[in-house]
Amino acid sequence: MNYDIKYQSDIERVVGSILKLEELKEKVILITGASGLIGSSISDILFYLNKKKNYNISIFLAGRSLERIRSRFYKYKCGLDYNFCEFDGMSNEKVDIQADYIIHCAGYSNPRAYTQSPVETLLVNIYGLYTILECAKRNLCKRVLYVSSSEVYGIKEIESFFNEEDYGYVDILKSRSCYPNGKRAGETLCSSFTDEYGIDTVIVRPGHIYGPQITDGDDRVFAQFTRTVAAHNNIIMKSAGLQLRSYCYSLDCASAILAVLINGESKNAYNISNKDSIISIKELAEEFAKISGQDILFKAPTESEKRGYNPMSISALNSKKLESIGWRAQFDIHEGVKRTLECYG
What we know:
Blueprint: H1 5-15, E1 28-32, H2 37-53, E2 58-63, H3 66-72, E3 83-86, E4 101-104, H4 111-116, H5 118-138, E5 143-147, H6 178-197, E6 201-206, E7 208-210, H7 221-230, E8 235-237, E9 244-249, H8 250-263, E10 269-272, E11 278-280, H9 281-292, E12 296-298, H10 303-307, E13 314-315, H11 320-323, H12 333-343
Parallel strand pairs: 1-2, 1-4, 2-3, 4-5, 5-6, 6-10, 7-9, 8-12, 9-13
Antiparallel strand pairs: 9-11
């Protein structure tokens, strides 16, 4: 991750999309999955607010490895700029942070995990979230935001953009369904904690998020494209790439999450989608190829790779509900891919 001047200006640009941002001043915020693509993008914004805007936010970054957190946030000091909280979504250990806000990003979001570790993929979305909600209940947390997924929608008969109330079919007997069903269960768990214990919860459903904050183990399509062209190699497509997806640059996604954290309605879900970046996988590959000067080659996928594919031919999201609370994306697909490649490495 390259913390160049442009990246700092990117952060300054996206924070303008967050209404009532001053609500975060002097607050304690816990982020799980803090070293991942989405969690680290949110963290970078919070660091910016402290360094440049004097927000004095107490930042707790949760993860399984302190070294991984230190490596990702090498520009900042543990114990000074943030505090570390050890957190494993498969562990029964309690988390006791007296946070005003908790943003729960932790969980498996890797297609390889869906085929190789479907049990863990399913359970981490339940055990990990339960641990966080129990922490919120014990410590009277102001609000918990759960990062779900567009995969909760499943497959519907009429192929159109998904609104937040649209739900289709998920085959519960396929182990690949461990991910969408785990996210569905997580959303119900949030609503149940709100109804039974009065815990304020809100949910976001990101589409396909891309950006320079990818981890080495991330083998989602955009991550493969990023690493491939950064190494000056041609892009390898394993399908025709006709599936339509909602793409969103990582910092835009992070600003959307903070906007919902502050302004979203309790017990509601919000799609995260950039209406100017709804394209096919093939078009995404073409954007990476055009900017990098590489070619696109086609190769047959392995059976294992096929099993990990998202079965949704269209997972484009309607972003009107998110936009109704004042949020606007700042990076279209061309600029977002360009910034990804400039900041990666």
